[in-house]
Amino acid sequence: MGCCSSRSSDSPATRVTRWRSTGIVALRDAKLKVVPHEVLQVGNSLRTLDLTNNKIVEVPQEVGTIVNMQRLVLAVGSLSNLQQLTVSQNSLLCLPKSVGDLCNMLLLNVSDNKLNALPESIGGCKSLEELQANGNTIEDVPSSICNLACLKSVSLNGNKIRQLPPNLLKDCKALQNLSLHSNPISMDQFQQMDGFGEFEARRRKKFDKQIDSNVMMGSTALDEGIDLC
After folding, report:
1. 97 located within any domain
2. Do 114 and 135 touch, CB atoms closer than 8 A?
3. Are strands 130-132 and 153-155 parallel, antiparallel or unpaired?
4. Engineered SS bond to 161: which of 33, 61, 183, 227, CB 3.0-4.6 Å?
């Protein structure tokens, strides 16, 4: 397979060359605490990065610049201390189920990928305050998002969302910002959701001004002014 860095005789340059040729970086069970610098040197040749079962506590921002990456595997329990994960502007097709183990994560940014769904396990991200998933092809939002009591801001612009979990506004009592520009969801659907009045009150309080009870969701759907953002 030639994609692991377990060979003691490997130099960093040799590993980078091999990884570029395969497009795969597999660093399972390597007892890593940080992502090796040579991984980032693979650049746009990198399609799969597997960091399963390590001790990594932080994913470098530079990972988000690897525009051709299709698969990022972070099935590592030690990431429970991770507070921010940004993997925007890549070509990710899905998120691993293990994302739900990130119990201390405050920000998740998966915008501008090729996601058609968010994992149901996202409901395990109990500390999550901000979710950014703009510019994907997401059709449905998992019902488990209603478990996120700390969630304050959700941005889902430019997806294919026709409906939201019915209890989203009711159960996410900290939610203040919701942006759904350029989605096919209707204004009536949104306003008829349980908890809409309470959500609108929180939003008005946040911005400290009188705002009509409408949501700016773009010209293809809610274009009357709900900028729930």
Report:
1. yes
2. no
3. parallel
4. 183
Looking at the fold, whether 40 and 92 belong to one and the same domain comes out as no
Sign of CA dihedral 43, 46, 47, 51: negative
The terminus-to-terminus CA distance of the chain in angstroms comes to 47
Can you tell me the distance from the alpha carbon of 191 to that of 57, in angstroms, rounded to the nearest whole number?
41
Q: Could you give the CA distance from residue 184 to residue 4 in angstroms, rounded to a whole number?
A: 44
Q: Could you tell me the sign of the dihedral formed by the alpha carbons of 30, 36, 41, 44, in that order?
A: positive
- Domain for residue 40, yes or no? yes
Total-model pTM: 0.69
101-155 residue pLDDT tens: 889 999 999 999 999 999 999 999 999 999 999 999 999 899 999 999 999 999 9
Q: Tell me which residue of 100, 84, 102, 220 sits closest to 161, measured CA to CA.
A: 220
Q: How far is CA 45 from CA 17, 132, 196, in A?
A: 10, 26, 46
